[in-house]
Design brief:
Blueprint: E1 23-30, H1 35-44, E2 48-50, E3 53-59, E4 64-70, E5 75-81, H2 84-91, E6 96-99, H3 111-122, E7 127-130, E8 138-141, E9 150-156, E10 159-166, E11 171-176, E12 182-184
Antiparallel strand pairs: 1-5, 1-6, 2-5, 3-4, 7-11, 8-9, 8-12, 9-10, 10-11
């Protein structure tokens, strides 16, 4: 299995609506390999679900095959007003283990983090999973195909990368930004 992913997201020009005070993004922890069914059931309930998918090449002894897998295994993102009715819909889905974050309400995810993941997946730039980082300078790419993408700047052995993190699920992506102009946020 390769650590470098390929684009699996649809509609690269899609921008997320502006976040209102009540409608926010949340991460749901799911049973392993149940992400698709949870996203489908959330949509059936009239809720907005986002499951970032990527293509990976899997190798068996007799063949290779490209398959589409969730970018963050065991997590689905949900955008809604977290009222008792919506919370009830979520907890009625068998494969949902709960909201990520403190308490039954979970922790809201900033709209910019979800938008950065969507934008990165819509590009043809190679990326790889990266360990979650808490420390580091937050930067924004200025110009080029990744204009406006924000993340944490990392420089290792002369390679410059931008780490895009979703704090609530402590998962990150790294994309090489050699040649891009980055500015501190």
């Amino acid at each position: 299995m390769s650590t470098f992913g390929q684009i699996g997201e649809t509609n690269p020009a899609m921008k997320l609506p502006v976040e209102s005070e009540d409608v926010r993004w949340y991460a749901l922890h799911t049973r392993s390999r149940h992400e698709r069914v949870v996203a489908h059931r959330l949509r059936e309930c009239g809720l907005e679900a986002y499951l970032p998918m990527v293509q990976e090449v899997h190798r068996w002894s007799d063949r290779k095959k490209k398959i589409e897998v969730p970018l963050f295994s065991c997590y689905v993102f949900l955008r809604c007003e977290l009222n008792p009715e919506n919370r009830n819909h979520v907890y009625q889905i068998d494969s949902v283990l709960g909201f990520v974050g403190g308490g039954a309400a979970g922790m809201a995810i900033p709209n910019e983090e979800i938008e950065s993941v969507r934008l990165l997946l819509s590009l043809t730039a190679p990326w790889r999973s990266h360990p979650f980082l808490r420390a580091g300078q937050r930067v924004r790419v200025n110009g080029g195909a990744m204009d406006g993408v924000e993340g944490i700047f990392l420089s290792e052995n002369g390679d410059q990368s931008l780490i895009i993190s979703v704090n609530a699920i402590q998962r990150s992506l790294a994309v090489r930004i050699d040649g891009y102009d980055v500015i501190p946020v």
